[in-house]
Specification:
Elements lengths: L2 H14 L7 E2 H11 L6 H13 L3 E5 L6 E5 L1 H8 L2
Helix pairs in contact: 1-2, 1-3
């Protein structure tokens, strides 16, 4: 499996464990992915893959209007993609 796919799968797997209706902080996702993928991906690599997953509508994020902090969840399409792996 190539590195890009490995990072994307780690993101999807992490978000798949978030209870329905809740969102996970971007910093928390980044920390978990850095622990799962070896060698540990950089912040830029993870952000790039999160943007791509968002563009593919496999994840969706909401920005806090005051702090700008992003929180994410997996979409139904993301769950389906993860099930196909």
């Amino acid at each position: 499996m190539n590195r890009t796919a490995e990072i994307r799968l780690a993101i999807l797997r992490d978000l798949a464990h978030v209870p329905a209706g809740l969102l996970r902080r971007e910093d928390d996702i980044r920390c978990r992915v850095q622990l799962q993928v070896v060698p540990s991906p950089s912040r830029a690599e993870i952000e790039t893959e999160m943007k791509e997953l968002d563009a593919l509508r496999l994840i969706t994020g909401i920005s806090n209007k005051i702090t700008g902090e992003m929180r994410w969840r997996i979409t139904d399409a993301g769950q389906a993609e993860l099930s196909n792996q």
